[in-house]
Amino acid sequence: MSSTSRARLGEEVWKLRTDKINAELVTLTYGSVVAQLCKDLDGDYAEVNKQLDKMGYNIGLRLIEDFLAKSNMQQKCANFRDTADVISKVGFKMFLNITPTIVNWSSDNKQFSLLFDENPLADFVELPDDGKAQSDLWYSNMLCGVIRGALEMVQMSVDAHFVSDVLRGNDTTEMRINLIRYIEDEMPQDDE
Amino acid sequence: MFLFRLRSSRVFSLAVTMVVYAVLILNKAGGLIYQRDFNPGLQKLSSNDYLILAGTFHGVHAITSQISPTNETSSSGLEVLESENFVMRCFQTLTGTKFLIFAEPRQQNLDVVVRRVYELYADYVMKNPFYQIEMPIRSEGFDRHLTSYIKPHQ
Amino acid sequence: MNRDPSPFRTASTASTATSPTPKYANLTASTNLRYSLTRKSIYDRHLNRTKTSELSKSAFAFLFGEMVQYAQKKVYGVQDLEKKLNLHGYAVGQRFLELLLWRDGRTAKRETRILGILQFISHQLYRAIFQKQADTLEKVRENEDEYMISDNDPVVNTYISVPKEMSQLNCGAFIAGIIEAVLDGHCFPAKVTAHTAPNEMWPGRTVFLIKFEPEVLEREALRVGS
């Protein structure tokens, strides 16, 4: 499948096969979740990041089925470059109606970045002015977990983390995704 | 007498009225997480036998996906199983979950049915916060939507 | 309203939206926050930008589900869980109300009567958030201070099947929280709870029971008298 046809698939799934909901409801609900974590974890933003990632991971394990069922993808991606393309053009498109740009491939084709021009989770958001949130909190960290969880279910172990965020005063919002390894399938897997 | 068919030799014909006997769902490890009869036609098994059936099928499926007679490096494994009394369609998702549909023989558009069942699973099982993944499915919403999808096909 | 504001305001308030000359926001505001020089800050973006935006209902369902699961780990029993969901809804409701009234601009009306505010909730608010109106609005006959708003198929519950051992639970408590925030915001303090009330057609039908504080009824009585 070519990159163009993936873009078309993403567009088609979004338009024809996706039930929609008010975007602001999602944005504000996400905000409420992050705010609750900041409260529960007493402003320990490193812990908040971890918890957001964990919640995202749990979502990813489930969301992958929705992704596969709605996109009707039945073939594994031939390589990690294809995977990146599918994540951006079909995955992000169908859930958040955005298509982050893929940049900065490593020479071994195992690492790339997603640049978020738009981030619906962060509309309306300004981080707390407490002298540490802007250096410690990755507000949208749930997205990293989602990608990690979803890819694990299709036999890819990855690391995903943000390296910049406009909410921190950076000029870009960038997530780095790193393929650790392909998980051998069919063989019984170790329970975690 | 069984007939194994791999994806390449799929036969198309006009849809006739459809009778689905049962739907089974197997988790990645071959554990049976859902079993439901929709129409009479299949033998009733004890719950233990269903588990054995699931485990056995899981094993057979793994073997068939490794002994593809063609030179392709990977095979989807067993997808259709037919006898004079029933046809079974297996759909394995990329995550390793298997959906098995048992229906009257010579049903040809079971592909469509199995895809729809997968969608319902994504909606009413995966999005239900009270469902623990890989565990047996107890979801009133899934049952309800599955019934209303499969029953009108009689 | 003994509720703490969230640790950080997701600045959707009218006051910040209309703050003057956003260009200098980072210089004039008493803030130590860093702002990107090349990107628009929230003060530069129009608040109506996302008014008609849509996301997938799936994305919401997964987020909401995880919120429920997280809340569930930290509670004792169904009531406690509903309380948590109510608080989440409350935070969302406060912000939605601000957005809604700001968008109404000069036509925004301050509701001063019980019926008026309930109609605002079941029509305008419901339409803005859920793209539909609530299905019914009724007074509870036996109790002077109670009203009911019903929703045949609350959007938050579409994919949720509550296990038998928790049959009292209705995750619509989240929407109850939204309603409560809007009532509070209009100075109609009330308790709002969500109850499952299925019928033949709608297995997920939910009734939001609104119980006003006594002062609301006292005020209403005075107004009727005048």
TrEMBL record, chain A:
The keyword Endoplasmic reticulum is annotated on this UniProt entry: yes
Highest rank taxon of the organism: Eukaryota
GO BP terms, alphabetized: Golgi vesicle transport; macroautophagy
Keywords per UniProt: Endoplasmic reticulum, ER-Golgi transport, Golgi apparatus, Transport
Leader sequence residues: none
Subcellular location: Endoplasmic reticulum; Golgi apparatus, cis-Golgi network
Entries under SUPFAM superfamilies matching the protein: Ligand-binding domain in the NO signalling and Golgi transport (SSF111126)
A GO-annotated cellular component: Golgi apparatus
Chief site of localization: endoplasmic reticulum
InterPro entries on file: Bet3 (IPR016721), NO_sig/Golgi_transp_ligand-bd (IPR024096), TRAPP_component (IPR007194)
Family from the record: Belongs to the TRAPP small subunits family. BET3 subfamily.
The protein's name: Trafficking protein particle complex subunit BET3
Organism: Arthrobotrys flagrans (Nematode-trapping fungus)
Lineage: Eukaryota, Fungi, Dikarya, Ascomycota, Pezizomycotina
UniProtKB/TrEMBL annotation, chain B:
CDD domains assigned to the protein according to its UniProt record, in alphabetical order: TRAPPC4_synbindin
Gene Ontology CC entries for this record: endoplasmic reticulum; Golgi apparatus; TRAPP complex
Keyword annotations of the record: Endoplasmic reticulum, ER-Golgi transport, Golgi apparatus, Transport
Pfam families (UniProt xref): Sybindin
Subcellular location: Endoplasmic reticulum; Golgi apparatus, cis-Golgi network; Golgi apparatus
Domain of life: Eukaryota
UniProt KW Thylakoid keyword: no
Any GO BP annotation: endoplasmic reticulum to Golgi vesicle-mediated transport
Family indicated by similarity: Belongs to the TRAPP small subunits family. TRAPPC4 subfamily.
Assembly information from the UniProt record: Part of the multisubunit transport protein particle (TRAPP) complex.
Protein name: Trafficking protein particle complex subunit
Organism encoding this protein: Arthrobotrys flagrans (Nematode-trapping fungus)
Lineage summary: Eukaryota, Fungi, Dikarya, Ascomycota, Pezizomycotina
From TrEMBL, chain C:
InterPro entries from the UniProt entry: NO_sig/Golgi_transp_ligand-bd (IPR024096), TRAPP-I_su5 (IPR016696), TRAPP_component (IPR007194)
Key words of the record: Endoplasmic reticulum, ER-Golgi transport, Golgi apparatus, Transport
Cross-referenced Pfam families: TRAPP
Superkingdom classification of source: Eukaryota
Span list, region Disordered: 1-23
GO cellular component labels: endoplasmic reticulum; TRAPPI protein complex; TRAPPII protein complex; TRAPPIII protein complex
Low complexity bias locations: 1-22
Subcellular locations according to the entry: Endoplasmic reticulum; Golgi apparatus, cis-Golgi network
Gene Ontology biological process terms, A to Z: endoplasmic reticulum to Golgi vesicle-mediated transport
Family the UniProt entry places it in: Belongs to the TRAPP small subunits family. BET3 subfamily.
Quaternary structure note: Part of the multisubunit TRAPP (transport protein particle) complex.
Cited function: Plays a key role in the late stages of endoplasmic reticulum to Golgi traffic.
Name listed for the protein in its UniProt record: Trafficking protein particle complex subunit
